[in-house]
Amino acid sequence: MEKRKIGSLTVAPIGMGCMGFSHGYGAVPDEDYAIAAIQKAYEFGCDFFDTAEAYGKEMFFAGHNEQLLGKAVKDFRNEVVLATKLHIDEKELTAEKNLSQVIREHLQQSLKNLQTDYVDLYYLHRINEAIPLEDVAAVMGELIAEGLIKEWGLSQVSAETLAKAHAVTPVAAVQNLYSMLERDAEIDIFPYCLVNGITVIPFSPIASGFLSGKVTSETKFEGDDVRKFVPQLSKENIAANQPVLEILKRFATEKKATNAQISLAWMLHKYPNVVPIPGSKNQERILENLAAWNVTLTEEEFSALEAALDKITVHGHRGHVESQQASFGQQWSKK
Ligand SMILES: NC(=O)c1ccc[n+]([C@@H]2O[C@H](COP(=O)([O-])OP(=O)(O)OC[C@H]3O[C@@H](n4cnc5c(N)ncnc54)[C@H](OP(=O)(O)O)[C@@H]3O)[C@@H](O)[C@H]2O)c1
Question: I need a labelling partner for 203 at 20 to 30 A (CA). Which of 16, 156, 178, 217 fits?
């Protein structure tokens, strides 16, 4: 397994999205199981873990997921790359508290939650139009200079927005939606990032489970599961998108791999600057996803897979709520 770069950081080619242990995918396993899952992933070779201050807000409390991750990695914290994210509300800015102070308060809370004194990769979770992005970028530059964070990134942005921030303080990573079902990032994000030395960290790389083949029209989404509201996962669109699964199944059988592994191996082959972060609450599936770094496609296999995918019309998108991109959902998701 060849490691990849995120700015000055070096990580295994697949990271682990920890969100589901606190947020967004319905019932969660107990804490001991979740901590063991993160530790097993580390033992398997995973050294890149993704969380956010917001994960847990609805079901538990803000910071729940960071605290869980902090507990899980405390014995090997310096061996891993921890990524977390902040949201800034303009109402937090007052006559007494400027942007730098607000961001520092968020960071201090994340550091406490994660039981560490630095964050490796600190993302702005969503752009807030009421706060100039250039100002946020400048503060991120200060935090890097002070060693409080190693690198910074943006999430769910267009290439144009990314360029504005990158001009102020070089951005190491952009965390956008990207999978075989959501290929908008191929239009502008990947080309921009390839030229500018930025790593793309796809979230929902297995299309919220769809690409594994385990989500069917009969699957019931319970509790806070965001998939209740994902148009791509409506009964009709699950049925209409079956051709993608048929392609995956064919390659998975040929390569003695799983569907999810082929979907990850495909993007690893396609781009040298991609590090997907699949999410799962299940210890076996976490290792299955990580093991995709052992599934290599030949040029011929990759071209055949690309050609098959290019012929397919994808039905539905994940949801505009995830997006700041003007083009989101228009190019690849044609219905
Ligand atoms: N920046 C952002 O705005 C943003 C937004 C969403 C997520 N994220 C981050 O990205 C990470 C990944 O996103 P995601 O969780 O939506 O991605 P995902 O991996 O595409 O989807 C997760 C879903 O797929 C299922 N799944 C995963 N691997 C599977 C496998 N091998 N076989 C069968 N089912 C499988 C999981 O079910 P089980 O749990 O039952 O295995 C879960 O329901 C999150 O954990 C979070 O850290 C960021």
Answer: 217
User: Could you tell me if 133 and 92 are in contact, meaning their C-beta atoms sit under 8 angstroms apart?
Assistant: no
Q: Report whether 58 contacts 105 (CB < 8 A).
A: no
Residue 205 Cβ < 6 Å to ligand 1: yes
Report the C-alpha gap between 324 and 48 in whole angstroms.
25
Catalytic residues: 55
Query: Alpha carbon 221 to chain centroid distance?
Result: 21
Q: Please give the Cα distance from 53 to 17 (Å, whole number).
A: 13
**Is ligand 1 within 6 A of the CB of residue 204?**
yes
Cα dihedral 265, 266, 268, 271 in deg (nearest 10): 170
Take residue 217 and report the two structure tokens written for it.
Answer: 């029209």
Secondary element (H or E) of residue 200:
strand 199-200
Q: What's the pLDDT tens digit per position in 49-102?
A: 999 999 998 888 999 999 999 999 999 999 999 999 999 999 999 999 999 999
